[in-house]
Structures are given as C-alpha cells and as structure tokens.
TrEMBL record:
Gene Ontology terms describing biological process: intracellular zinc ion homeostasis
Protein's UniProt name: ZIP zinc transporter
Keywords: Membrane, Transmembrane, Transmembrane helix
Superkingdom of the organism of origin: Bacteria
GO MF annotation terms: zinc ion transmembrane transporter activity
Amino acid sequence: MLMVWIIIFSLLGSVVSVSGAALLLFFPEGTRRILTPCLVSYAAGTLLGSAFLGMIPHALEYSQPRSILSLVLAGIIIFFLLEKLVIWRHCHVEGCEVHNSAGPLILVGDAFHNFVDGAVITAAFLTSFPLGVATALAVIAHEIPQEIGDFVILLESGYSRHKAFFYNILSSITTLPGAVIAYFFLKSMEAVVPYILAFSAASFIYIATADLIPKLNQKIGIQASIRQFILLLAGVGTIILFHVQHG
C-alpha cells in the first residue's frame, strides 16, 4: 500500500505541477507576474518548513547530530557546485540568465532534478506517512513556478505550446522512476534513509535560500514585501499544521 501512495504523490508532484504551470500561462502577462512571486513565496515557506521541521528532525532521530548536520552542510555546498554547472538551476522569474540557455539543456536538467525529487519523496514516505505527504506538497509547491519558467524558456526557444507542454511532461515524469527505484533500493538499505533525508533537506534549503528568496528580494515595495512575508509564513504554517494533525 505504501508503494501505491508513493506512486500517487510522485505523479502529483510531476503531472500536477506541469498542468498548473500550463494553466497559469493562459493568464495575462501582468496577472502572471503577480501570481508567480506569490507562488514562489509560498513554495519557499514549504521548502524551509519541510527541511527544518520534518526532514532534519526525523533524520536526527536515527543518527548522530554531527553526522546529519555535516551532511546538510555538505549538501548545500554540492548543490552550489551543481548550480554552477547549470544542472540544478531553478529559474522562477522570466528574463533571468538561465533563459539564455537552450531549451534541451533545461529539459535535461529538469529531468535530472525531478528524478531526484522522486527519490526524496520515497525516502520521506519510508520514514513516515505524514513526512511523505508534507515533502510531496513542498515538491509540488516549488515545481509549479519552476515549470512556468521552463515553459517560457521553451516558448522563447521556438517550441509551440503543445510541444512545450509535451516535453515538460516528459521531463517531469522522471519523478516516478526516481521514486520507484529509490523504493526498492532504500527498502533494503534502511540505514541510509536518515542520510538521504539530510541530503534532501540540504536541497530544499538551498533552493529556498539561494534561488527563491533572492528572487523575491528583487521586489522591494512595501505591499509586495508584506504579501511575500505572509505567504512565506503560510507555506511554513501548512507544513506545521500537517505535522500537528498527522504527526
């Protein structure tokens, strides 16, 4: 039964994200420019909440604090290096530097990241059902604004809307094999699950602090700042509420 839930939430983390992003593309550009930062703010909150209130605490229950925290630090450094290689880059704002990259490169990088997301979801579910659902929610929340950016890149690269949607679905569906492979691998090596959670927490922290929040800081208006702050807290609050109700 656990495998069924993993598959369901892995598909939600991929197909729902792409569909939501495609739907938002039909909004007027002005509306989209308002909604995307709102989604980014909420996503940053869910990522930070999942990492600090879910993944790291659960990892610390099964391993030495020094080992877990060292891996979180190492993970953040590794993701910095990956970003420099344009593998882990998540662009959530139209007009950023990554939009100068070719469409195929974005799709390959996105497929790699979604594959890892699937493994992250599985590791969380193997630890506890509430952590799995909360992690999947965080994945969905930050994937939607990312997919909007990916759509814009492909459209600017000459892809039609239908082809952009099709290729984004292909790159996002790698979440499922990532989840399934991780399930059979991690089930036989449960001792490594806490370290997978720690490494996953590092990716969530890095995406939130090195990518999402800096984009939000580009808007300095008081109303925008208040809206972003409230939505970030809402993202954290969603994770807290879910753990309180189902923990």
